[in-house]
């Protein structure tokens, strides 16, 4: 997994608790100005997470998102919580992943009325692609509470303002329908965290919302029916899967810009620049001055046929399950990703290599705590990346 944590922010206590329940080895981290983070790792995985409660509203979300980014230099920032649905095809309990965040309150008041001055932030292409991959595979649903109905995952714009919308006919509702009618959901913090990400070198920010009401006057009824708790449990399950995948991508190097320099990393007092290899290229070590011996080696005894390697790994996976080193849920999730990998290997289309590699990286995130499986899978991923 990546050395950089994933920051997850929430606005409500029940949202915080839904994420906190998925973390282990928690330690308190106090910011110098009083903000408290809990830092741990996802249960069953190795992804490090820094969790904080920011309260409601875009302003407080922006301030504390900026504080979290400066404190942890994360690989990504996720905002997880509940929202109201703006379209009838989105059901209670479904998950909406933002493709764009609208700050919808901007406008100018003129004699003929209020005119919208839209401001929006797009979710990064890399984050959007990983989120869609997770949504397609459905492996993330293994993280849902037992006997929970399987929600749908929707991708679309989210509107973020400063008021709770609970009407279909109010002036506020008509304003959104007229100017932001492609928005899938409405909430109160997304614009703040999106702006903080934008101001920090286009940091990957993903807003994930569970639908707890329909923004139509029935919020009190849905809240009494505990839809907030159910919706945020679904959003938290998706966020956990996304965090693991991003951490795996970041460790592999595919998540970083090719020219990114890691400030503060040193070798005998000299700054180190990380170089990212693409396609079939390999970089062993590149450094200006190195003190001490260097040894670089490649294991040539591993299988070189990818299909045979995948078949052998499947057998290892079954043995790990049989001897108790791998639980049933993890085994099922890994098998689902290996099926995707097999299909991609057979397809031999321009997109199949990327699909194959993403599936294998997902398996790596699932089995990372089993040393021999993780080591063999690293060699298989190398074979996959070497495909022409």
From TrEMBL:
Instruction: Give the GO cellular component terms, alphabetically.
Output: cytosol
The UniProt entry, under InterPro entries, shows: Nucleoside_phosphorylase_d, Nucleoside_phosphorylase_sf
The UniProt entry, under Gene3D superfamilies, shows:
Nucleoside phosphorylase domain
**A Gene Ontology molecular function term of the record:** adenosylhomocysteine nucleosidase activity
Q: Which Pfam families match?
A: PNP_UDP_1
Record domain Nucleoside phosphorylase: where: 5-242
At the top level, the lineage of the source is Bacteria
Which GO biological process entries does UniProt record here? Answer: L-methionine salvage from S-adenosylmethionine; nucleoside metabolic process
Protein's name according to its UniProt entry: Purine phosphorylase
